[in-house]
Specification:
alpha/beta; L-arginine/glycine Amidinotransferase, Chain A; four-stranded mixed sheet; 9 helices
Length: about 325
């Protein structure tokens, strides 16, 4: 019998989504109330459709933010930060058995403190939260935001991120590919060598640039402003995406997401992107930035997901910490 190991696509049925709430010892401290408001909005949107796991250092306070707690589970754990996508478990399906792979997290190549965040998945397992899943510790640095799955064995990623020298310095690109085949059941790996966003700490995570919305369609963050610093790189990225083929040798359907006018925190350019959306059971949460193209982006998602509700989430606060909506969430397949 063929061993069927694969990384489920995000649109497959989910058990719950994980959030780790900001607290006063995180980098959110200067605008903590605004950050918490955004996290509450995300949690409430998720809980309308499926379970939401809320991890918090200040558990009593965070619980008090939710008068209705339907579909919510609260767990007390300390954290360095809030980027569940990157330190959260990555769940694979192996012959219909789900295993949470607990990869190492080192804060995108040791850029920040990560000792607490790297322990969260293991501690959730110990607290019985992941009892429906097998658990496997993996001695490889890999973040959820770095990989995209079409649910059929194709993994989309970027060489800037996976080959960055402080993650897995001992591995060549071929060596990384072998790990993705071994752990995620990858049958084909598509490497983007172009595309980045200023202000992104992750070395070009794929979930800021290009995403699968079904097995043969990729949406990508486009740039039509020739004066913008990103224009040339994102044009090259589009060219690369158009050269990719599926198993049948066919090109993927490509859908451009509109450009967002430059946003700043004082001097810092912020990595605003519509590609950082989250698919959940029955809905798609789409980041918005008080930009003239927000409504255009929402209409594109309505066409792409006619059977799901499209929910706008204001992510202007999230990008001040150089991430967005997808970055603070991690789904666990059912």
């Amino acid at each position: 019998m063929e061993n069927k190991l694969y990384l489920p696509a995000e649109w497959e049925h989910q058990e719950f989504v994980q959030l780790v709430f900001p607290h006063e010892e995180t980098d959110w401290s200067d605008y903590l109330d605004d950050a918490i408001t955004t996290f509450v909005n995300i949690a409430n949107a998720i809980a309308k459709y499926e379970k939401c796991l809320i991890v918090a250092k200040n558990l009593t306070y965070v619980k008090s933010l939710f008068p209705k707690k339907r579909n919510m589970t609260f767990i007390k754990l300390d954290s360095n930060d809030t980027w569940s996508r990157d330190f959260g478990g990555i769940t694979v399906n192996n012959n219909d058995e789900l295993t949470v792979l607990d990869f190492r997290f080192n804060a995108w190549g040791k850029k920040f403190a990560y000792n607490l965040d790297d322990q969260i998945t293991k501690k959730l397992k110990l607290k019985g939260v992941l009892k429906k899943y097998k658990h496997q510790t993996v001695p490889l640095v890999l973040e959820g935001g770095a990989i995209e799955s079409n649910g059929e064995g194709i993994i989309l990623t970027t060489s800037r991120c996976l080959m960055e020298k402080n993650r897995n310095p001992m591995l060549t690109q071929r060596g990384v590919e072998k790990k993705l085949v071994s752990y995620l059941g990858a049958k084909k790996i598509l490497w983007l060598n172009h595309g980045y966003l200023e202000g992104d700490d992750t070395d070009s995570h794929i979930d800021t640039l290009a995403r699968f919305v079904n097995s043969d369609t990729i949406v990508y963050q486009s740039c039509d402003d020739k004066t913008d610093v990103h224009y040339e790189e994102l044009q090259k990225m589009k060219k690369e995406l158009s050269s990719f083929k599926n198993f049948n040798g066919k090109s993927f359907n490509l859908v451009a997401l509109p450009w967002i006018e430059a946003q700043y925190d004082e001097e810092d350019r912020l990595p605003a992107t519509y590609a950082n959306f989250l698919i959940i059971n029955g809905a798609v949460l789409v980041p918005t930035y008080d930009d003239k193209n927000d409504s255009v982006a929402l209409q594109i998602f309505k066409k792409l997901f006619p059977k799901r509700e499209i929910i706008a989430i204001d992510c202007q606060t999230l990008i001040r910490q150089h991430g967005s909506l997808h970055c603070v969430t991690m789904q666990y397949p059912a």
